[in-house]
Design a protein that fits this description.
The structure holds 2 protein chains of 2 kinds.
Chain A lengths: L1 H22 L8 H19 L2 H8 L2 H9 L2 H37 L7 H28 L5 H25 L2 H9 L8
Chain B lengths: L1 H22 L7 H20 L5 H28 L4 H27 L6 H29 L6 H27 L4 H22 L22 H24 L1
Classes of the chains: A mainly alpha, B mainly alpha.
Chain lengths: ~190, ~260
């Protein structure tokens, strides 16, 4: 009976995979430049859109909440708290999404490397899975404690995401074609920004 | 009656596929795949012509079935060869993973066969087919997992090969497992389902391989990634990113 179930599981599992393959949307064939731009975009979103200090202060500083509860009623305070919670959860979701984008960038390049290390790739996949789980855990923490109950966590996540950006800058710099680098250096003065 | 109709229609589709492969000059491009189709066509046509002779079909069915089963493994090889040809890294991963799956499944199957108390030719034949299908199904599933994980783009030809052969293997495996459980009373349905799934595969292959449609080429890597020169740096960068975020999240969860 167990054998039957295993065989059925493999057979039906394969059919589900095929169904997913048939349903898979055809991604546009991307050029090197496009991938580069997308990775840059993910970095830029993290650096300029999600991690600026003033934005984080704005979302997670309890001063606004104190002001609202001081001048308004309790209901308005609760409504404000709900909205802030929603925004903070959205913020974590976006950070998670951009981390995934950076990982996708890694996969898009590693698949082309003939000397890819299978063990390293498996470890990276596990690392990513753990990291995404950790992000999810952080969301639960924000959800249960509220936006002002996890300030320390937010600070730590912001610092970590900042380091991710710094590391990604290095990865992207390595992927810059040498010719482009030299052109960038030569046009650094009053030329157009690349 | 249904099986006979599907048999004849299948022969027609196989012939069409072979003619088109010559017309579009794809026979040499997908040599293992068309070798399989040629083998099945010759076997099917031979069995159909000789079936009026007494005992001919019974005598030749299982030996020829073994030949087509063995050639079916060539289709899996063709899929690996074609799907990941432009992605050396993903291909390396698929090769290792497929070997591991093959060895583990083969050992499990051998162990299972060795521990069987009673042996009979017909049961052994059906079991062998089922065990081979398990290996093919697991290898195909592994390749598909890698295709999804690395976002490998497939052309119409290779997608058709995978969908057609995968559907046939998946249905065969499921029905063979059910047959082993339900016994001879399932034979009628089993035979019809096998024929229907193979016919479905032939339709998919005829549509997908009507004209030559290679896989889209992946974008060129700016630093010549195919040589593997920058892989270490890339891994180092990615690992540093993940590690820093992970360690800080761990600390955050504890705060």
């Amino acid at each position: 009976m167990i054998g039957l179930l295993l065989y059925l599981l493999v057979g039906i599992g394969l059919l589900i995979f095929l169904w997913l393959l048939a349903r898979r949307e055809r991604a546009p064939v991307e050029g090197c430049g496009r991938q580069f731009v997308e990775a840059r975009q993910a970095l830029r979103t993290l650096q300029l859109g999600l991690l600026p200090e003033n934005l984080i202060e704005r979302i997670f500083d309890p001063e606004d909440f104190r002001y609202v509860t001081r001048v308004g009623s309790g209901d308005i305070g609760n409504l404000f708290l709900q909205e802030r919670k929603r925004i903070s959860l959205m913020w974590v979701r976006r950070v998670r999404c951009e981390i995934r984008n950076l990982m996708r960038f890694h996969l898009d390049y590693s698949r082309l490397h003939a000397k890819l290390s299978v063990v390293t790739e498996i470890r990276l996949a596990l690392d990513l899975a753990l990291l995404l789980l950790a992000c999810r855990a952080l969301r639960i923490l924000l959800y249960s404690r509220g936006p002002y109950g996890a300030r320390a966590v937010v600070g730590v996540l912001t610092a970590a995401a900042g380091r991710v950006c710094a590391a990604s800058e290095k990865s992207l710099a390595f992927l810059n074609p040498p010719a482009l680098e030299s052109f960038r250096r030569s046009s650094a003065g009053d030329g157009a920004a690349i | 009656m249904l099986s006979l109709l599907l048999w004849l229609a299948g022969l027609l589709l196989e012939f069409t596929l072979l003619v088109r492969s010559v017309q579009t000059k794809t026979f040499t491009k997908y040599i293992y795949f068309y070798a399989y189709i040629s083998c099945v066509f010759i076997v099917s046509a031979g069995l159909y012509i000789g079936r009026s002779q007494l005992g001919f079909y019974e005598a030749w069915y299982w030996p020829t079935q073994f030949a087509t089963l063995a050639m079916g493994c060539g289709v899996v090889l063709e899929i690996v060869r074609q799907a990941l040809a432009s992605y050396p890294g993903a291909e390396r991963m698929a090769r290792r993973a497929s070997c591991a799956v093959f060895i583990v499944t083969f050992c499990l199957v051998e162990w299972s066969v060795a521990s069987r108390a009673v042996w009979s030719t017909s049961a052994a034949t059906v079991d062998l087919e089922r065990d081979l299908r398990v290996i093919e199904a697991l290898v195909l599933a592994t390749i598909l997992a890698i295709v999804f994980y690395y976002r490998v783009e497939l052309g119409k030809n290779v997608t058709g090969m995978i969908v057609g052969f995968g559907a046939y293997v998946g249905v065969s495996l499921t029905t063979l497992a059910l047959r082993a459980f339900l016994g001879p009373r399932f034979d009628g349905i089993w035979s019809d389902l096998q024929s229907a799934s193979y016919f479905f595969a032939l339709i998919v292959w005829t549509v997908a391989l009507w004209s030559y449609s290679p896989n889209p080429k992946p974008p060129a890597n700016g630093r010549g990634g195919r040589g593997g020169g920058g892989y270490d740096a890339l891994v180092h960068g990615t690992r540093a990113q993940l590690e820093s975020v992970r360690s800080n999240l761990r600390g955050a969860a504890g705060s």
